[in-house]
Design a protein that fits this description.
Nuclear Transport Factor 2, Chain: A; 101 residues; alpha+beta; 5 strands
């Protein structure tokens, strides 16, 4: 799922990538999400192996290590690393990118 998400971003399909995110209070709108990529000339990601799922409060959570890299429109390099949290209901359903807003 994370590979698909970053492939959509790389292809400029920000609306489709946005649909893989879980709606959260305070999260950016689809338009603001798309606008946040306007400053990049190139945006790529390397996605690592997800953690084992952890259950909490009726939800399953996994952490996925991600390194992003590319180039800004002004020519400066882009490089960042961290983890992305995915969650879904413990009873099933699709995994979604989870942010607290």
């Amino acid at each position: 799922m994370m590979q698909s998400y970053y492939a959509l971003i790389e292809a400029g399909k920000y609306g489709d990538a946005y649909k893989l995110r879980e709606p959260a209070p305070g999260a950016p709108s689809a338009e603001a999400f798309a606008q946040s990529f306007e400053r990049y000339a190139e945006h790529h990601a390397t996605v690592g192996r997800p953690s084992e799922p952890v259950q909490s409060g009726g939800w399953l959570y996994v952490e996925v290590p991600v390194q992003t890299y590319g180039r800004m429109k002004d020519g400066s390099p882009l490089a960042s690393g961290g983890t992305v949290t995915l969650r879904r209901r413990a009873t099933g359903g699709a995994w979604r990118i989870f942010t607290k807003g």
